[in-house]
Amino acid sequence: SQGQVVAGTCGGGGGSAFPFTPGSAFGTTVNATGTVLQLQGGLFASSTVRFGNAGVDSQFLYNGTTGFMGLGTSSPWAQFSINPTAANAAAPSFAIGSTTGTDFVVTNSGHVGIGTSTPYARFAIQAITGVAEQLVDVATAAGASIFHITSSGLVGIGTSTPTSKLSVVDPVSTAQQTIAYDGTHYAQFLVDATGNLTITPSGNKITIPDDNLFVCQGSACPTSTATSTSGNLFVENAVTIGDGFSVREIGTGDPTYGDQLGLYDTSGALMVIFDDGQ
């Protein structure tokens, strides 16, 4: 009859009386007792298994008809559904980690955090203090890094070992970077196998507005002051024209010409001297 449980014999072999008193709450038959029910052979239900009162929003429910499981909901719409409840206050909907561990957290507002219990964005990753680790890595099927972020904030594209805030690595003979206004107006950057940089704009100009351009040997740039504060080209050695003609300074203290400017031919022979007017 309803409310009846059939169980095997107890440890003494003599059997025992059923210790549960059937009752009813929220229209569902229950066992009104404080005695723990132990089912050693498992639990089978042809329709629904519910833990918690039907009127309590933090119940745990399994719908045998659909195979869906719900926590905090009586109408799960996925294989496993969690519905944040007022009774749980600010506790996250889901967490992996002991006590207040933050290995993986989903808040009641739907934010996902790794390494943080208070993700401030839809998806937030926080590094562990004092631990040099890799935060994000997106790789090809062969394991080659496509996109990488380290715990120190370095970003790599095409490399898992970025050396600056943004490192782009691609051993190809075509442009590694493109900056564009739209699909047809752009500038491309290529660093070749010898370390040379080529800038290719789709237009016909490279402009440095209201500033100066320095071309230096080593890290020491010319210190001379031009007649205007901007729009100057500072070259430490020579300016080469056409097939190899060059203009360069004849060094200070030169025993023959002193501190002057010379025009040289393609063989390096001095053609014209521009003196200082003295």
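the 2nd protein, sequnce then structure:
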Amino acid sequence: MNSINPRIYSFDYLRAFAMLLGIMLHSSLFLVETSNEWWIVPNNEVYNPYFYIYFVIHTFRMPIFFIMSGFFGSMLINRLGISDFLKHRVRRILIPFLIFVTIYAFVFPALYIFRDFYNVGNGFSYAYLTEVYNYISSPKVILNANPEHLWYLYYLFMLVLLHIFVYWAVIDKSVFKIGRYMLILLVSVIVIATFTMALFMKDVLLDIPDKGFVPLADMWLFYTCFYLFGVLIFKNKIILRSITNNLVYYILPVIVLIPIAIVLFFTYHADKRFLTKFASVSANTAITWLLSVILVGVFYKLLNFKSKVAQYISEASYWIYVVHLPLVMFLQIILAQIEMDTIAKFLIVNIISFAISIITYHLFVRSTFIGKTLNGKRYRFTKPFAQID
């Protein structure tokens, strides 16, 4: 089977890159003015460079996740068959989601309570511990639980079930191997569908379905389009050839569109007109797709090689994705009370969050049952990079 579906290291690295960008994106939020209403550490400063970091990463990061998930999902179901594919996805997606969403039902409220106590000088006081105990021992801990940043796993598992149903229902497994012009038509429909759904979201930036366990139909359909695009990439290698051969034609437009999209974002938040929203969403959708295909093309063309360091970080990235957010939030609570240059704060949160995540991965995950659950493999404990296949 490996001769039929050789491992594409570049896409492992791309998926890891998208996961690691989560640290940078979340680290920017306590420095971004738009985070006032919903982030753990409000910031009253006007728009600053950290907003642009957030803006650009937010446009493509989650779509990349779903494109890669569609690609690897299609590869796995072809290799394993329906039954083993379902077992694989339950072990690697559903079980980690259920475990960590349960843990975070306690952790995130404790962080918000800590913020309130720390801001008045109490921190880890007896009163704080009492307040946390009162909260986690009440029905609120269940009633207020949310997927938080693990919503990706939640929505992805629903897509896995849809993928299994379609694979089972379609007798001719080559149905997604289609002609060039039909492929262009289908991809065009997918792009238009994502624009249409984005147009009816609450804001011009992509909504984040991290609150509540009732799936949002528009968000699920939106990301289904990117998952389907990943399936099409796997089934039709002509897409990869087209992307890699025409990268320059994607790069130049996105360079022009990003500043236009930022101006339109500010304009929409000033006038709230539908016409402005239409223009803003149009630019954002174009950037989402352009950056997504650029990254797919660049990684596939330039980074499709075996590297012990890159593979190690790729395997660690799932753990980093799962655990980084409470680390980031805790550091932001502490640093918000310290007079310090914002660049230093941004770098401290990024570096310490990554360092703690990678160290805990090596010490407590890589060679334990946790690593086997997340990555399907358990290594003998040794120095980093020593046992990469």
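The chain has 14 helices and no strands. The chain has a mean pLDDT of 89.
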